[in-house]
Amino acid sequence: MKNPKVYIIILNYNGWADTIECLESVLRNNYPNYQVIVIDNNSPNNSMEYIKAWAEGKLDVWVNPKHFLRHLSFPPVKKPIPFVYYTRKEAEKGGNKSLEDKLKRRISKSITTTYPLIFIQTGENLGYAGGNNVGIKYALEKDDCKYIWILNNDTVIEKNSLLEMVKVIDSNNRIGIVGSKLLRYDIPTTLQTLCGTTKMTWKNAGKGNYLFSNEEDKQDFNKIFELDSGYIVGASILIRKEVFEDIGLLDENYFMWAEDTDFCMRAIRNGWKLYCCGKSKIWHKEGASSGSGKMKKFLWRTSIRPSFSRFIITGYLDIRNHIYFVKKHWGTFHMWIYILGPNLKKVSRKILGILLFDDRKLQRIKLLLKGIIDGIIGKVGKPRELP
Q: Which of 201, 92, 207 is nearest to 138 (CA)?
């Protein structure tokens, strides 16, 4: 099939400004057959209303005129852009086809999609896995769905990013997942990672051994290659429909953090190939807007420290989910070795950072210990500390 349809899933939680900037770049991409789905996880700041206002032409997002990447999302594409708004229940049944077909006739030629935007309100904070799964279920209900692109809302894309990924995944029907070159939004010529990580084992679970992390981008990194034992970072991940049909959706037990690792592990074990497409360039803010952080100093050391609300993710969920991940894929014996080895080192480093830099020290340390216990006993899903 020439130019098979791609459903692009963008999940939002309190990050409407980032989401709008991302959408402005996505709607400039040069792949001819795609539809955008924006899912809101019941943001307390009324994000969905701002995103609707943007689509109606009533709101634009400010991007620094001097920023190196401004051209990817500015000037704004022509508005209004037709959209359909669904509840979670409506979306998971595949939406309203007749209404969507009717709105297709109103699409402006100034944007590169021929389909209306799909806005979905989940009604509760389902986390990364649960929120994206709502969009995945919507897409899988569609007869024309071939690929699903999960894209973080705190990204902007080069216009040929999707096209290059589709070329790779189309080249072999056993390629199930393709990732992008991820560059830092704040330092645009520096890599976050070349698609993913080195080999996944129980020993390095959660260490994030990103390929070529913090290296200067160069022509050599525009390559295409197989990640035969690592995982692709979920900020940009193109997935063949049949992979979901084979291994299921994202594991919602994680809520967020490590679900991309788990998904790739399941895919590899079921015989799917993972590929990196270095020609697909994405700039990632690396969670900059999902939680506040402050620069702290102690003697000769300087560190960017997460707020307490952000620490629930970077501390508690990091520890809990990677223990759960090791137990799920390697069993109880390796889980205990991981806890007493690599995990102990990680927890010790986190505690040292807390003692040197952070407020609410006792509460943070208690969260780390709670993460260990919950990971061991399998108490997973949404933490009660999160709204």
A: 92
User: 364: helix, coil or strand?
Assistant: helix
Write out pLDDT tens, residues 358-378. Answer: 778 888 899 899 999 999 999
β-strand partners of 210: 197
- For residue 220, the domain's CATH number is 3.90.550.60
Cα(146)–Cα(8) distance, integer angstroms: 11
Question: Can you tell me whether residue 22 is helix, strand or coil?
Answer: helix
State the residue range of the domain holding 323: 293-377
Virtual torsion, Cα 148, 175, 255, 84, nearest 10 deg? 0
Tokens representing 368 are 């780390």
Q: DSSP states of 129-150 as a string?
A: HHHHHHHHHHHHTSTTEEEEEE
pLDDT tens-digit series, residues 303-318? 566 666 677 777 889 9
pTM: predicted TM-score of the whole model, two decimal places:
0.92
